[in-house]
Amino acid sequence: MLYSNDEMVHNETIFGLESTQLKFGRNSLNELGWELSKYNSAKILLVVDPVLHDFDVTQKILDQIKSSGAEVITFDKISVEPTLKSFEVASQFALENSFDLIVAAGGGSTIDTAKVANLIKVCGGAVMDYVNAPIGKGKKPTSQLLPLIAIPTTSGSGSEATTVAVLDIPEMKLKTGISHYFLRPTLALVDPELSKTTPSGVTASAGLDVISHAIESFISKPFYEREKPSSPDERPPYQGSNPVSDIWSMKALDFGGKYLSRAVLNGEDVEARGNMMLSATLAGIGFGAAGVHIPHACAYPIAGLKHSYQASGYKKCFIPHGFSVIVTAPAVFRFTYDIEPEKHIKAAELLKGSVITNPGYESLPYELIKLMKKVGAPSGIKELGYAKEDIPEIIKGANKQQRLLSVAPKKVGENDLNKILIQSMENW
Ligand SMILES: [Fe+2]
C-alpha cells in the first residue's frame, strides 16, 4: 500500500525521483555554450559518435564548447553496441587525459561509453569491478563523478536520463550493465533536429525499446513490495513503480502510441520524430526510477548469443537492442496480466489512443503486435535466428539478470520463462 496507518515493518516505505535536468526543443543544441558557462569548466572531454562528423553536428558542438571558453579533447572510438573492450579503451583514454566535464553526443552507446569513462576516471579500478554482480564485482562508485551533459541523437535508450550503462561481453556471450545513481547525466539537451538523419529501421527498433521501457516500468513491482533497505545507500536505482514514475511512463506511452509509426513510416515527419525524442527521455526518467524487468532480462542473452540477424538501417549483422526487447514483450505482458489487469489495460489504451471495449489479457499484446507489424519489427525470436533448442541457453542468460527480474511484478521461474520464450518464437 502506498501510504497507510498500518506500518509494514519490513517493507519499503520511501521512494524518490532523482532526475537528469532536461532541456528539450528544436535548436536546443545552440544553448550548449550557455549551459557550459555555468560550470566554469577549463577542459572538456567530448565523447562523440563519429557518424555525427558527417552531419556537421560535431562541428556545431565544438563551436558551442569554444563559445564557453573551455578547451576540448575528443574521443570518438564508439562501438555500436559497446563491449567490455570498447569501454576499457574509452576509460584508458579518460585516464590518460585531463578534463573536468564530459559532453556526450550520440545514441545510447555513446552516452553509456561516456558514463563508464567518467566512472573509471574518477573512481579508478577496472570496468569489471563495477559490472553488476554476479557477472562483475558490483562495486559502488566511491564518490560523485564529473558533470556529464548528454546530447542524444537517437530516440531510444533514454540513456541521457538513466543510471545505467549496458555492455556486451562476447567472451561470456552475454550483455549486462553497470548501474548506480552517480552514472546519471547531469543535464540532457534533447534537440529533435539531431534525429533527422536516423534511418527508419533504427527509429523502429529504438522506438520499440522506448515503448517497452514505458510499459515495463509502469507495471513493475510497486516500490512498497520491496524489502526496506538497511540504509539509503542500499536502496536500488530501480525502485519499482510509484505514482511519480507512472506519470513519466504513461506520457511516454501516450506519445509512443501516437508518433512511433508515423516517425518510422515517414522520416520527414518532424513532429513525430521530435515527439519520439521526447518520449524516449520521458520513458528514460520513468524506467530510470522504477526499472525494467522480464523483456530486458531476456533481451540481453537474445542479443548476446547470436549475431547473424541483419536489421534494415544498420551496417552490421547483430540484433538491435529494441528488437531483442520487444520480441518477448507480448508474451511477458500476457504472463503478468493477472497481477494488475487495470494497468495492463491502461497501457493498451494509451498505445491505441482510445478506450478499449471488452478489455482482457490479450488487449495489450494485441496493441503491441499491431504496432510491431506496422513498423516492420521481427515477428519473434525465430526470425532473429533462434530455434526451440536454444531456449535453455536464453533462460540461463536471463536468470543472470536478477537485478532486473527482481523488479518484475510477479515471480518468474524457469518454467515461466520457457513458456514466454516458446510463445515468443513467432508472435504472429
Ligand atoms: Fe532498453
Biggest sheet: strands, sense, closure? 6 strands, parallel
- Tell me, briefly, the overall form: globular
The DSSP helix count reads 16
How do the SSEs run, as a string of H and E? EHEHEHEHHEEEEHHHHHHHHHHH
Overall mean pLDDT score? 93
Bound molecules: fe (ii) ion
Total number of strands = 8
C-alpha end-to-end distance: 38 Å
- Detail the poorly predicted runs: none
Q: What value does the Rg take, in angstroms? A: 20 Å
Strand content: 5-15%
Q: What structural keywords apply?
A:
428 residues; alpha/beta; binds fe (ii) ion
Q: Overview of this structure, please?
A:
The protein is an alpha/beta fold and 428 residues long. The chain has helices at 32-37, 57-67, 84-96, 108-123, 127-130, 200-218, 243-265, 270-290, 294-305, 321-326, 329-336, 341-352, 363-374, 391-399, 402-405, 414-423; strands at 21-24, 43-48, 71-75, 101-106, 148-152, 164-169, 174-179, 187-190. It is globular. It has a six-stranded parallel beta sheet with strand order 1-8-5-4-2-3, sandwiched between helices. 53% of the residues are buried. The model has no long low-confidence stretch (mean pLDDT 93). The two termini are 38 Å apart. Helix content is 43%, strand content 10%. Helix 7 (243-265) runs antiparallel to helix 8 (270-290) and helix 7 (243-265) packs parallel to helix 12. Helix 2 links the parallel strand 2 and strand 3 (71-75). It binds fe (ii) ion. Residues 209, 213, 296, 321, 325 line the site of fe (ii) ion. The site of fe (ii) ion (FE2) has 5 residues, from helix 6 and helix 10.
